[in-house]
Automatic annotation (TrEMBL):
It comes from Georgenia muralis. GO terms for biological process: response to oxidative stress. This is Osmotically inducible protein OsmC. Pfam families: OsmC. GO terms for molecular function: peroxidase activity. PANTHER family: OSMOTICALLY INDUCIBLE FAMILY PROTEIN (PTHR42830:SF1). It comes from the Bacteria. NCBIfam families: osmo_induc_OsmC. InterPro entries: KH_dom-like_a/b, OsmC/Ohr_fam, OsmC/Ohrsf, OsmC_Ohr_Peroxiredoxin, Peroxiredoxin_OsmC.
Length: 143
């Protein structure tokens, strides 16, 4: 059985929700500290990030990894996967949906198998599973 891996992130917030601000940190890797504030979350980014942007990046990455594995198990490993995720946030409602878009370069796969495997990867992706209760949609294009 694999050993569990714990990834750590943290945040510091100063002030109230609407005028305050903070920082989010990638503690495990130490690769980044990101400014956060309410305006970036509910209006426009303006050089700061939001929890939804961080979730979108994590989801795009996880989906790419899951899809790559599913394709490899099918005997059709990808040459390249370009994945993006859009997490939609509505103030007062929360995250209302996430849309994944993937453009894939894969040799020797039918469109039908490609779509079936793309959908299976969406369902099997650990981040998708963690976001159960959020509508997750997918546009998969074989290029």
């Amino acid at each position: 059985m694999p050993n569990p891996v714990v990834s750590k992130g943290s945040a510091t917030w100063r002030g109230n929700l609407f005028q305050g601000s903070g920082t989010a940190r990638l503690d495990t890797s130490g690769l980044g500290t990101f400014d956060v504030n309410w305006k970036a979350r509910a209006e426009e980014a303006g050089g700061t990030t939001s929890p939804e942007e961080l979730i979108a990046a994590a989801h795009a990455t996880c989906y790419s990894m899951a899809f790559s594995n599913e394709l490899d198990q099918n005997g059709t490993p990808p040459a390249q996967l370009d994945t993006s995720a859009e997490a939609t946030f509505v103030a007062g409602e929360g995250i209302t949906g996430i849309h994944l878009t993937v453009n894939a370069q894969i040799e020797g796969i039918s469109e039908e198998d490609f779509q079936r495997i793309a959908e299976a990867a969406k369902v099997g992706c650990p981040v998708s599973q963690a976001l159960t209760g959020t509508t997750i949609t997918l546009t998969a294009t074989l290029v």
